[in-house]
From TrEMBL:
GO terms for biological process: microtubule-based movement. Keywords: ATP-binding, Motor protein, Nucleotide-binding. Residues 26-150 form the Calponin-homology (CH) domain. This is Uncharacterized protein. GO terms for cellular component: microtubule cytoskeleton.
């Protein structure tokens, strides 16, 4: 029966504290938000934020750094800014890259350490770390900074400052079975929390002790049917040792699962009860979350522990956490770097393939071009190395008898001597092609244009006009003087073509074009471009006319 009562008593006590802790945690979070806004301006979240909102907003460390710099100017010299205007910050802002906000958070934690103010672990700000206690640690830290700020403002920074700790105990706020204790007891446990924040450590402890006594007394009174005369008599007879009973109650508080959330508990209790021979045996035997044996060799730590606190141990713990955070960050960064490296590698390989493809395509193009050129000039050869065309000039006098009797498409021409209309007066000629009196300059050039391309491919070509005076040589080769663009002769059209082709191929080959103009007259060759009229230079390339 006593065991059952102990269990109910313990459960009820926990539930009251859990309920109170939850209320306190909310109130403290609002207090922290309000103070931060008063120091750094609007945070862009509601003034009564949820745990998630609160932590999300502090995650990049910017607000924390700015706040500590306001409280203690110069505490952090370099703050990594996030240039997102406050009005654009959503409830779930885009986080900075991990390494950037880690720098802010780390600088803030170091600055808090230097001010000897309670800090938290960087991992408490992680997105997934919203577990019991992690937000409370951040809130505690902000409120400690707030208290320090107020201390500085009131005392001008004189006198030592002792941050007041959260009055909460490490217990799971979600614990159920709230019905295990009368509801009016719960109500009576509600405290004026704003007044409590100003209580000293001793007064706070005394008040908590008073509340504990009240709860236990009320609970025992409410369960008087279990408190029969035998139980009270056993107290009187000394069968029940009150110290042992209390020890058992406390030991139940420190069950292994609770130890994880309140690892300092055993150390504190050991120190409290070390002079007592009534320390329950099973409390000694209960495994705890923190192994204090590691301190056995350190006299310094033993001394510290005897005072109830060990800064070295706390620092070691913080540094271990930070080391763990750094390891995680390092692993993430290495993974990102490896990803980038393999991406770059595959991009380079891809690039290499594309260059290879382009090179082989260019090679193929050159090969095809060469084949094409060979075939093209072969066709020109097949058409005949020497080609003779005939152009019939239109008659100047209308009505005069025409000597041209027939012009065939196959290049045949029949001439009739008007003075000999018999068979003897008819002469037949065969050319590559015959241009009739109506043929235009363009018709004639179409037939010789393919030869211009052969010139550009390195073949020698000669086009010249031959005929009696007034038959139209100059007209065909140069065009009439003062004529329109349509009447330009072969010389001009061929040169135009040469320059166009040279321009089109300029990326592949550079051409040098030279022009000579000579005249053969009375079997004398004369250079028409030479200033020396007696000059008889005559190696020519393109054409002659005269
Ligand atoms: N196809 C043609 N259509 C119209 N007019 C032409 C044509 N061929 C020649 N003529 C005209 O005939 C005349 C004589 O032509 P052109 O001067 O070209 O002869 P030519 O053979 O160069 O003579 P020469 O040997 O004396 O220099 C010119 O007035 C020219 O304009």
């Amino acid at each position: 029966m006593l065991g059952e009562m102990e269990d109910r008593c313990t459960t009820g006590f926990y539930n009251v504290l859990a309920s109170r802790k939850a209320e306190e945690a909310v109130w403290r979070r609002y207090q922290a938000t309000e103070w931060l806004e008063s120091v750094v301006g609007p945070l862009g979240i509601s003034n009564k934020p949820s745990e998630k909102e609160f932590i999300s907003r502090l995650r990049n460390g910017l607000i924390l750094c700015n706040a500590i710099n306001k409280v203690h100017p110069g505490a952090i010299t370099k703050v990594v800014e996030n240039h997102v205007p406050i009005q654009f910050i959503t409830r779930e802002p885009q986080p900075l890259p991990a390494y950037q906000y880690f720098e802010n958070v780390r600088n803030f934690l170091v600055a808090m350490e230097e001010l000897k103010l309670p800090a938290f672990e960087a991992s408490d700000l992680e997105r997934d770390a919203l577990e019991a206690g992690s937000v409370a640690k951040v809130v505690d830290c902000v409120l400690a900074l707030k208290s320090y700020h107020e201390h500085k403002n009131t005392n001008g920074g004189n006198g030592s400052f002792k941050p007041s700790r959260s009055p909460m105990v490490g217990h799971n706020a979600t614990r159920s079975n709230l019905h295990g204790i009368p509801s009016d007891s719960c109500r009576r446990l509600e405290m004026n929390v704003s007044a409590e924040a100003h209580l000293s450590g001793n007064a706070e402890a005394q008040k908590l002790e008073g509340e504990l006594v009240k709860v236990l007394a009320e609970y025992m009174a409410d369960t008087k049917e279990n408190m029969g005369g035998n139980f009270l008599a056993s107290f009187k007879a000394g069968d029940v040792d009150p110290m042992k009973l209390f020890g058992r109650i406390v030991a139940s508080c420190l069950k292994e699962n609770e130890q994880k959330k309140f690892p300092e508990g055993k150390t504190v209790l050991r120190d409290c009860l070390k002079d007592s021979s009534n320390l329950p045996v099973h409390l000694e035997a209960t495994p705890v979350g923190v192994d204090i044996s590691e301190d056995k060799n350190s006299k310094c730590c033993q001394t510290c522990l005897s005072k109830g606190d060990c800064n070295h141990r706390r620092l070691l713990h913080i540094q271990e956490r930070e080391l763990q955070d750094l390891k995680t960050l390092w692993a993430t960064t290495r993974k990102e770097f490896e990803g980038l490296q393999s991406q770059l590698q595959s991009d380079l390989t891809q690039c290499g393939f594309q260059v290879q493809e382009m090179a082989s395509a260019a090679q193929g193009y050159q090969r095809v071009l060469k084949e094409n050129r060979i075939l093209y000039n072969m066709v020109q050869d097949l058409k005949g190395n020497i080609r003779v065309y005939c152009r019939v000039r239109p008659s100047f006098t209308s009505g005069s008898s025409n000597a041209v009797e027939f012009v065939g498409e196959d290049g045949s021409l029949v001439i009739v001597d008007p003075s000999k209309p018999t068979k003897d007066g008819r002469r037949h000629f065969q050319f590559n092609q015959v241009f009739g009196p109506t043929a235009t300059q363009e018709d004639v050039f179409d037939q010789v244009q393919p030869l211009i391309r052969s010139v550009m491919d390195g073949y020698n070509v000669c086009i010249f006009a031959y005929g009696q005076t007034g038959s139209g040589k100059t007209y065909t080769m140069s065009g009439p003087s003062g004529g329109s663009a349509k009447e330009l002769g072969i010389n001009y059209l061929a040169l135009n073509d040469l320059f166009h082709m040279s321009d089109r191929r300029k990326d592949v080959i550079s051409y040098v074009i030279r022009v000579q103009m000579v005249e053969i007259y009375n079997e004398q060759i004369r250079d028409l471009l030479s200033e020396d009229s007696s000059s008889t230079k005559y190696p020519f390339k393109l054409f002659i006319t005269g």
